[in-house]
Design a protein that fits this description.
Shape: globular
CATH superfamily: Peptide deformylase
Protein name: Peptide deformylase
Distance between the termini: 29 Å
Number of strands: 9
Number of domains: 1
EC number: 3.5.1.88
Helix content: 25-40%
Number of helices: 4
CATH class: Alpha Beta
Radius of gyration: 17 Å
Organism: Deinococcus phoenicis
Structural class: alpha+beta
Function: Removes the formyl group from the N-terminal Met of newly synthesized proteins. Requires at least a dipeptide for an efficient rate of reaction. N-terminal L-methionine is a prerequisite for activity but the enzyme has broad specificity at other positions.
CATH architecture: Alpha-Beta Complex
Largest sheet: 5 strands, antiparallel
GO molecular function, one term: peptide deformylase activity
CATH topology: Peptide Deformylase
């Protein structure tokens, strides 16, 4: 599994770069992997965290790639349950360089939204287009187009936001973020500690190789 980066980690605020299926990628703290291997591990990490989507920047990899799934019951975020999520998957998605076009401009605010990089915080009222078209590249390098509405449309918009350095809290009034100030400050401290540990491990590795 990859460690999921938390609110406060700078990588989560950067705009991710394009990625090609033939690229070799290196998640910090891990050996180089193919895009397909990274996608597989992203999915496993997402299942372990009981999520519905996970973008590459959330594991410290600033590339335009995300994974997502449609479960048999998609009304909940699935976090905190016990049932194995893989057994409930209807479809899974791996999208490289996704581009979203809105096909229904009417905004939906009815779903509760959360984020694996902001664990434990959920809010309703995030305005999302009700239906979208996504153009993306698959793992075989083929160009694909997918149209979805309602819950999956929300998931795709949420994940593309991550590729542009945007959190769902950013789409709500500032006072909502302020309400969670203590929890977010704690996550920022955790994010800083993890980055310090990662830098220390990398320094030790280089010293050992020298």
């Amino acid at each position: 599994m990859y460690p999921i980066r938390l609110y406060g980690d700078p990588v989560l605020r950067r705009k991710a770069r394009p990625v090609q299926p033939t690229d070799t990628l290196t998640v910090p703290g891990f050996s180089p992997q193919s895009v397909r291997e990274v996608a597989d591990t992203l999915l496993e990490t997402m299942f372990e965290a009981r999520g519905v989507g996970l973008a590459a920047p959330q594991v410290g990899l600033p590339v335009r790639m995300f994974v997502a799934v449609e479960y048999e019951d998609d009304e909940e975020e699935n976090e905190g349950g016990d049932a194995p999520l893989r057994s409930r998957v209807l479809r899974d998605f791996v999208m490289l360089n996704p581009v979203i076009s809105v096909t229904d401009k009417k905004k939906d605010r009815s779903y509760q939204e959360g984020c694996l990089s902001i664990p434990g915080i959920y809010e309703e009222g995030v305005p999302r287009a009700r239906a979208v078209q996504v153009r993306y590249t698959d793992l075989d390098g083929q160009q694909r187009t997918l149209e979805e509405g309602d819950y999956l449309a929300r998931v795709f918009q949420h994940e593309v936001d991550h590729l542009d350095g945007v959190f769902f809290l950013d789409r709500l009034p500032p006072e909502v973020t302020e309400d969670h100030r203590r929890e977010l400050a704690r996550m920022q401290r955790q994010a800083k500690a993890y980055l310090n540990d990662l830098a220390g491990a990398e320094k030790l590795r280089r010293e050992q190789e020298a």
